[in-house]
Specification:
The structure holds two protein chains of two kinds. By secondary structure, chain A is α/β, with parallel strands linked by helices. Helices cover 51% and strands 10% of the residues of chain A. Chain A has helices at residues 7-11, 24-29, 36-47, 54-61, 68-72, 79-92, 99-108, 111-126, 164-168, 170-182, 198-202, 206-219, 231-238, 240-244, 247-253, 259-265, 286-292, 296-302, 325-328, 330-347, 357-364, 373-382, and strands spanning 155-160, 185-189, 226-228, 256-258, 276-283, 306-311, 351-354, 370-371. The longest helix of chain A has 18 residues, at 330-347. The radius of gyration of chain A is 20 Å and the shape is globular. In chain A, 52% of the residues are buried. Chain B is α+β, with helices and mostly antiparallel strands. Chain B has five domains: 9-96, Uridine Diphospho-n-acetylenolpyruvylglucosamine Reductase, domain 2 (2-Layer Sandwich), CATH 3.30.43.10; 103-220, Uridine Diphospho-n-acetylenolpyruvylglucosamine Reductase, domain 3, CATH 3.30.465.10; 224-332, 2-Layer Sandwich (Alpha-Beta Plaits), CATH 3.30.70; 339-413, Alpha-Beta Plaits, CATH 3.30.70.2740; 430-475, no CATH class. In chain B, helix 1 packs antiparallel against helix 3 (56-68). The chains are: A alpha/beta, B alpha+beta. Chain A binds chain B through residues 8, 11-21, 30-33, 38, 41-42, 45, 50, 53, 55-56, 59, 72-77, 313, and chain B through 26, 28-31, 33-35, 37-39, 52, 78-80, 96, 98-99, 101, 118, 120, 122-123, 126, 141, 143-145, 265-266, 268-269, 330-337, 340-342, 390, 392.
């Protein structure tokens, strides 16, 4: 079979190996088949006619799609794009992404299904049959809907609420709305835009993710900036242009901002009664650092409001969460997380700030105290 | 000794799995194909089972099994080598050291650290930095390459100009010989007894056995560092500046030159403010005590201006320095922005000949209609001409190899040598006769035989055919297809 990869994109890797230490799966395995260089070599061999064996699939399926290799690559290899195309070809041929995964992902763009599933989960949590190690936050039995701000001084913004996060971590959205309102913005929560489709893209379900992207673009028509507080969703939405290949999608992508990125560029009037007496370690979600590349904004935003900001010494290596990766590859995700937890221990913070709900949940499951940076900021502003 | 040569591959694999563990012996076609390559352009390697040992005892066990079953072994670190040293020929057992990656002991009293071979070079330095030390050899691939690979290739790096190459930084080793025996070479004493077998082993490219524990020297971090970036209107001006700096008596920590094309590619990746309109840039670093560093930096700037430097920039802080170095150290990888493949040479020429040899290198490129870019350790006269090409173009490889041979000949004709730091591997094996006499090579073969009489360890590398092992005549010629 063919993976329909662009030969020039595939040729842009010179096998130098500088990506190796920046790949979380290579770091924990030392195994060439779990490295970006090895995966590209296998893509090439499949394109040259090699069979899709279990080992070849394994190599592709174990990729977290963190894209840490992209910022490490001096040749600018578009690894994320190559891996997405590869997975799409394999999923079309039903080589990967079995039907139960397709069904589960289907819930994300069906709010009714997601809500019903989450209610069941919330009840299950109350009767204590959900293991803590899964890292699922305590889901509220009912949570009032989010409402638009009453008015604005500095202009209106959309707050993209997404799918799982809206049901499981609406508190974070409320904190973000509070901070944005304090900065003078009128916030319109995007309650009917549904899911961004990032997980579907990662799973190789390109047709579905393109459909979802078109839905999001139609729903959030106009010129109002779209702010996102989940790094993974933000990265996916900024890349709608390359996903759909239309001018409209590209224009949409340029309206998307990570909340911290937006607030650093448009600070408005943020004043806190005092700084939080905390030593805060910033954990960069991969899709904020390696895809959106706006991770420094998190620091600039938090710095005035906390006692101390510390860096982790692992150069932004992935934590292993990877959207649904931690559920699909628990063993590898755990080994990858062990390295992250060791880096956090060396930094010895009071709390970890992570701008992606998946990373936060994955770290919390290992006992790390992790919160969204905007929640910390809201706490400082509330005094 | 009885050697069975007909063991069925599956039997060999199951014996290896028993000796290690099932998940650390891989034999599927996909895995073996990946371990048949390294960072060089050589194709046609063929790997047997791939093993991931975690201890010296496991390396010994693999070695004995290999011997018993008539298989050779090829050690492999991160696979960033550029001369094909880790490419398996004839389906040997590949021994990956990547899971032997622990820093075992840091001994500040002896100023050494015991490390396993799979420790990544930069990881070691990062661990040592807070203690006030670092591991001095800093190959451009240092973020990926391993100490074991550095030992095998006697690796250099920009800062080896002042600090010396890997051999100067390895004091002792535990080595599993190709017969499975464990020997201890060198020692922590300043003058270990007997022959310096440690010195003989370093740079052996895996043909003398596998080092499983390595004692490396710790180098104190300098008190002060200054990094200068000089821009020139010609590569010759940059080369002449380098010679003049050394002649003035300064010992810079590093002196690196990049030409215009490679500077543009690098700048596109790092955004460090490299001048992309200059024909060449010289990155010079001085370190030591602060007062001396400032004086030497000024002297280098002055010498540069005398030799035509059109601009001199001094990095104002650590971040700027780091960014400039990141550019230099990712240069090879950045060439894919210009062409999808490169063939890199590693000759060393006397510094006084740098300007002339470089001129010839560009002429050779023009003669063969190939783009050649240069990025090199100017302070040592260690050239790295990169011949750029697109492997999809018909017949391009013949031109690439002809140009490469011409570059080697030009370098040797002015009194240079074949390899500065990347090793001989497959790449320069058959150029060895240009450099050494029959007797020279015969003595090298005897040294090799003393460690590996049956020629089981990385056969087909380093020594050219009449001098390589008698019992593997099948490998005495480079197999068909290796050159792409």
């Amino acid at each position: 079979m063919t993976l329909n990869l662009d030969p020039d994109e595939l040729a842009s890797c010179v096998q130098c190996g500088l990506c190796l230490p920046h790949c979380p799966t290579f770091r924990v395995s030392g195994d060439e088949s779990m490295s970006p260089r090895g995966r590209i070599a296998l893509m090439r061999s499949v394109e040259d006619g090699a069979p899709i064996t279990e080992e070849v699939k394994r190599s592709f399926e174990t990729c977290v799609q963190c894209r840490g290799c992209e910022t490490a690559c001096p040749s600018g290899v578009k690894f994320g794009h190559l891996m997405e195309k590869t997975r799409e070809a394999l999923a079309k041929a039903h080589e990967i992404t079995p039907s139960w995964q397709r069904f589960a992902l289907g819930a994300l763009d069906h709010p009714g299904l997601l809500s019903a599933g989450s209610k069941a989960l919330a009840v299950a949590q109350r009767v204590k049959i959900v293991p803590k190690r899964l890292g699922v936050p305590r889901i509220p039995l009912r949570s009032p809907a989010m409402e638009s701000s009453a008015g604005s001084v500095a202009g209106d913004v959309y707050l993209f609420t997404g799918c799982v996060m809206d049901v499981w971590q609406r508190d974070v959205h409320r904190d973000v709305q509070y901070v944005l309102e304090r900065a003078g913005f009128g916030v319109i929560p995007t309650t009917n835009a549904s899911c961004c489709g990032a997980l579907h893209t990662h799973a190789g379900l390109g047709d579905r993710s393109r459909k979802m992207a078109r839905h999001v673009i139609e729903t959030l028509d106009g010129a109002i900036p779209i702010l996102v507080d989940s790094a993974g969703c933000g990265a996916a939405m900024k890349e709608y242009g390359s996903l759909l290949g239309t001018d409209e999608a590209k224009a949409f992508g340029s309206r998307v901002f990570d909340v911290a990125e937006w607030l650093v560029a448009n600070p408005g009037t943020l004043e806190a009664p005092g700084v939080l007496d905390l030593r805060v370690a910033v954990q960069d979600p991969c899709h904020l650092r390696h895809v959106q590349r706006v991770h420094l904004a998190t620091r600039d935003l938090l710095r005035p409001f906390v006692r101390e900001l510390v860096e982790l010494d692992d150069e932004g290596l992935c934590c292993g969460a990877g959207g649904s990766y931690s559920a699909l590859e628990p063993e590898l995700a755990g080994q990858i997380r062990d390295r992250k937890v060791a880096a956090i221990d060396r930094a010895n913070p009071d709390v970890v700030a992570s701008a992606n709900p998946g990373c936060s949940m994955h770290l919390q499951a290992a006992g790390v105290k992790s919160v969204h940076p905007l929640s910390l900021l809201a706490q400082a502003l509330r005094g | 000794m009885k050697i069975r040569r007909t063991t069925h591959p599956d039997a060999l694999v199951s014996i290896l799995k028993q000796a290690l563990s099932p998940d650390r012996v891989r034999n599927d076609a996909a895995e073996r194909s990946l371990f048949s390559n390294d960072a060089s352009i050589f194709k046609g390697g063929a790997s047997g089972p791939v093993c991931f040992p975690v201890s010296t005892a496991e390396v010994q066990a693999i070695t004995r099994i290999a011997l018993d079953h008539g298989r050779a072994i090829v050690p492999r670190g991160a696979g960033t080598g550029l001369s094909g040293g880790a490419i398996p020929l004839g389906e040997p057992i590949v021994v990956s050291t990547m899971k032997m990656n622990k820093i075992l002991e840091v001994d500040l009293v002896h100023r050494i650290a015991w490390v396993e071979p799979g420790v990544v070079n930069l990881d070691l330095t990062k661990t040592l930095m807070p203690l006030g030390f670092h591991f001095a050899p800093d190959p451009s691939s240092q973020q990926s390459c391993t100490i074991g690979g550095n030992v095998a290739n006697n690796s250099g790096g920009p800062h080896c100009l002042a600090y010396g190459v890997t051999s100067q930084h390895v004091v002792a080793l535990d080595v599993v010989l190709p017969n499975g025996e464990l020997v201890h070479l060198g020692g922590l004493d300043a003058e270990p007894e007997g022959y310096d077998l440690r010195g003989a082993y370093v740079g052996g490219e895996g043909t003398l056995g596998i080092a499983t524990r390595i004692a490396v020297r710790l180098t104190p971090n300098p008190q002060a560092v200054q990094t200068l970036l000089l821009a020139f209107n010609s590569v010759e001006d940059a080369a002449n500046t380098v010679s003049a700096v050394i002649a003035s008596g300064i010992v810079p920590a590093a002196m690196e030159v990049m030409d215009q094309l490679i500077t543009q590619a690098v700048e596109n990746y790092v955004n460090a403010g490299y001048p992309t309109d200059a024909a060449a840039v010289l990155l010079a670093e001085v370190d030591g005590l602060s007062s001396g560093v400032a004086i030497n930096a000024e002297r280098i700037a002055a010498i540069g201006r005398e030799h035509g430097a059109v601009s001199v920039r001094v990095a104002s802080n650590d971040e700027e320095r780091a960014r400039l170095w990141k550019g230099r150290k990712t240069a090879f990888g950045a060439v894919a922005q210009i062409a999808p493949a490169y063939y890199l040479h590693d000759t060393v020429v006397p510094r006084s000949q740098l300007a002339g040899v470089l001129r010839r290198v560009y002429e050779i490129g023009a003669e063969y209609h190939l783009t050649i870019v240069n990025v090199f350790h100017a302070g040592d006269g260690n050239l790295h001409p990169l011949i750029l090409f697109d492997p999809r173009e018909n017949g391009v490889l013949e031109r690439v190899h002809a140009a490469a041979s011409d570059i080697v000949e030009v370098s040797l004709s002015v009194g240079g040598v074949l390899s500065g730091e990347h090793g001989i591997g497959i790449e320069k094996r058959d150029h060895m006769e240009l450099m050494f006499s029959f007797d020279d090579l015969d003595h090298q073969r005897r040294l090799r035989s003393a460690f590996d009489p049956l020629c089981r360890s990385n056969p087909g590398k380093v020594l050219p055919s009449p001098h390589s092992c008698a019992d593997i005549q099948s490998l005495s010629r480079i197999p068909e297809g290796v050159w792409g």
